[in-house]
Design a protein that fits this description.
Length: about 375
């Protein structure tokens, strides 16, 4: 169990250092990080309640946060409030009276400096500006980002467990693979196995990048190929991850339906070598862009540079994508406890593709991957 009291104290110290008077966190990874109030799985459509813009916690420079909730959220969504004071909007309250009362009770001055969740609704910011028109607003990420990017031992252990759940789902999927199945079959099986092995949900939309000379996948037509049979020869590339104890994982492997030719075996080996070079470069004192360059050189020098179409990886933790990023132009210096994906690939639509992905912790000598199974090429004959 994370020490939320200690986290709150660190956040409030950041607020004092950055001259922030008040922090408003809507339901998000930041709110969960500070208070333990868990997020809900997203809905495709926008489910909303009167005063929904006010769902979140108000964090003062000193003292306990105040949690404000619409009545429907308080009554039906089993919100765990911990030690926070909870204020529930009354019938007909559009949020403004409750927000005004909170601002007054926290002695928020007219010209306050207020940090707000980066992805809060525009409605939240507009209403707060109306209540404190002279206030200065900033992004909460300036406060929370420096704290969240370095994972402590407890966080890394949770992410290791998330990796074990994800890898177990992959292992359980393998016996179900067969020629002629579809992307929909694959997605359904992977998602089932994640939940079956302990995941809260998937950390992003489970994806496949399957490529072959007779298979029409391109990056723009995923829905169109969803039900097209995967007949050999075709390469199958997994991209998925489990949420576990509110932390995200991101994982990938490639395998082959049919008998892979010499070129496919070569690009598979190159992708694995590229990842190994990237993991070795994820050491304290190196930079994000240098780690990306180390992995990219392996593939570029072999003549497949244009087929490595993306960055080496991204930060990961309570969100599946977090800054900083392993990409050219990101000169962030690597510190111990940062967690990144290392996910090189060679993708040539209508021909073949291969990718690998694991979460890696920055350590003094080299990165520490949190998953390391299934390194050899798997062939489904």
């Amino acid at each position: 169990m994370p020490d939320y009291s200690a986290r709150l104290q660190r956040v409030q110290a950041q607020m004092r250092a950055q001259n922030v008077d008040l922090l408003f966190l809507s339901r998000s990874a930041n709110l969960s990080y500070v208070t333990g109030l868990l997020r809900e799985q997203p809905n495709y459509g926008n489910t909303m309640y009167p005063g929904e813009w006010l769902t979140g916690a108000w964090v003062p420079v000193d003292g306990a946060p105040i949690l404000t909730l619409p009545k429907m959220v308080a009554d039906f969504h089993a919100v765990q409030s911990g030690d926070m004071e909870v204020r529930v909007l009354g019938a007909g309250d559009n949020g403004l009276p409750t927000a005004a009362a909170v601002l007054d009770s926290l002695h928020t001055p007219a010209g306050a400096r207020i940090a707000i969740e980066d992805r809060a609704w525009a409605e939240s910011l507009i209403n707060l500006q109306a209540l404190r028109p002279q206030a200065t607003f900033s992004q909460a990420s300036a406060l929370l980002g420096p704290l969240r990017r370095i994972k402590d031992a407890d966080e890394i252990q949770i992410m290791r467990e998330a990796g074990a759940v994800t890898e177990a789902a992959f292992a359980a999927t393998l016996p179900q693979l067969r020629h002629g199945m579809t992307n929909l079959d694959l997605i359904t099986e992977v998602n089932f196995q994640m939940r079956r092995n302990g995941a809260t949900c998937d950390s992003f939309v489970t994806s496949f990048y399957n490529m072959g000379r007779n298979y029409p996948f391109d990056f723009h037509n995923r829905d169109e190929v969803l039900l097209i049979p995967l007949d050999a020869p075709v390469s199958i590339s997994f991209d998925f991850g489990a949420v576990y104890k509110d932390y995200c994982y991101d994982f990938g492997r490639s395998l082959f339906f049919g008998e892979p030719d010499a070129e496919y075996r070569r690009i598979y080996a190159l992708v694995m070598a590229s990842q190994a070079a990237g993991i070795a470069a994820l050491h304290v004192g190196n930079t994000c862009e240098a780690a990306d360059a180390a992995a990219r050189a392996v593939i570029a020098e072999a003549g497949y540079g244009e087929a490595f179409r993306h960055r080496l990886g991204h930060g990961i933790g309570m969100d599946v994508h977090e800054p900083p990023f392993l990409t050219a132009g990101d000169a962030t210096v690597l510190e111990e406890g940062m967690c990144f994906t290392a996910e090189p690939s060679i993708f040539m639509p209508h021909i073949m593709g291969a990718r690998v992905e694991d979460v890696v912790v920055v350590r003094p000598g080299a990165g520490e991957p949190l998953t390391s199974g299934f390194q050899e090429l798997l062939v489904i004959g």
